[in-house]
Amino acid sequence: MGTPPRSQPRPIRLGPRSTAALVLVSAVGVVAFGWPFLAPPASQLNAHAQDAPWLFAGLLALLVAVVAATISESGLGPKAVAMLGVLAATGAALRPIGAGTAGIEPMFFLLVLSGRVLGPGFGFVLGSLTMFASALLTGGVGPWMPFQMLAMGWFTMGAGLLPGPDRLRGRGELVLLAAYGLLAAFAYGTVMNLAGWPFMGALASNIAFDPHAAVPANLARFVAYCTATSLGWDLGRAVCTVALTLALGPTLLRALRRATRRAAFEAAATFDAPVG
After folding, report:
1. Which of 61, 89, 160, 227 places its Cα 20 to 30 Å from the Cα of 2?
2. What does each C-alpha distance from 123 to 11, 113, 137, 151, 275 come to in angstroms?
3. What is the average pLDDT across 216-222?
């Protein structure tokens, strides 16, 4: 009989406060991304279609609050902070490698595997922090940055919520992670399209958001917008994520699990009683 797989420690666990904060930010995020389909044509929000994305960029403050609440509640130790910093810096450094090259973005595969090993709480913090650091590194700071941070937090947290984190290993786990990376890569591109679509205005009238049109008409415009502007990029991101997951996944998963066990994030400090 083989030795059963050891349970993997998780540096950041989702406690009640951090869970509530994540739910709040996610709910606001759904509205921030989906308001073109949620607001009636005659609403005041649609009347300010060009201003709404800037207003929703205030999500950045909520994201920072979520990160702070998660870290403070979990009692994140220095070893976990160090791993968070290393992984975020590595992801931020990987992002510019494929900039402008058909969606070749190796950062996504790293975040999928990190979220899987380190859990959803750590994953959300890591995804948001990585996108923030990469924006500073590449000069990509703007009203879209809070949306990218939230979307990447969701992306990485989702990997930590996949089933069988302690028991599923080997080829089955790689296939699961590759399938998740494939779907999540397209999902990330789609939600980020939602963030930028209302900015188009009259630049491309046949696919731009029309604040006076009904939901079905705007949905058709949005599908045409995604097909025309990002389908190839999203496909490249998905293929790159799947290929790197299958090729490098076993090695990186072992390295992450070994580092997590050796760091003993959740090991409680113990003190021996004095002798005599």
Report:
1. 160
2. 10, 10, 21, 12, 44
3. 88
